[in-house]
Amino acid sequence: MTVFLPIPLPCRRLVGLGLLITAAALLTQTAQAEADIAAGEALFKRVCGNCHNVGPGARAAFGPQLNGIFGRHAGATRDYRYSPAMQQADLVWDRDTLSAFIKDSDSVVPGNKMRFWGIGDQQKIDSLLLYLKAQQDH
Questions:
Q1: Residue 124, SS3?
Q2: DSSP string over 34-46
């Protein structure tokens, strides 16, 4: 037999308020994730898009296309001519390796041919990676 105990009105209000706060936090996180993807896309277009392509129909340009970058071995696309340093780099691109590479490419793959000053703001890097992750299946 199940016994239900009555919850006093002040407690019911607190439970309801807690649920409302939780729902608002989840909506804020969802909106923030979308804003980060949008910020990442804008950053990609402004900083990376001169050399790299991503999305449907992306091809190598001055730099390799970045579709499916997560989980890909460095120097592995067939439509781009990589530096010997990148061809010999023994790494797989994931969040950590990409983050470090975007921050300072020469420290991750010394001698690579990407001439890029880097991005020092981790929040911007995270937004960029979020955008690239959204393009993973193209």
A1: helix
A2: HHHHHHHHHHIII
The pLDDT value recorded for residue 18 is 54
Number of domains in the chain: 1
On whether residue 3 sits in a domain, the answer given is no
Residue 19's domain comprises 10-134
DSSP letter for 7, please. P
Domain for residue 54, yes or no?
Answer: yes
User: 3-class DSSP state for residue 92?
Assistant: strand
29 lies in some domain: yes
Q: What is the spatial distance between Cα 54 and Cα 96, in angstroms, rounded to a whole number?
A: 20
Q: For residue 61, what is the DSSP state?
A: S
5-56 pLDDT tens trace? 566 656 555 555 554 455 444 444 554 455 599 999 999 999 999 999 999 9
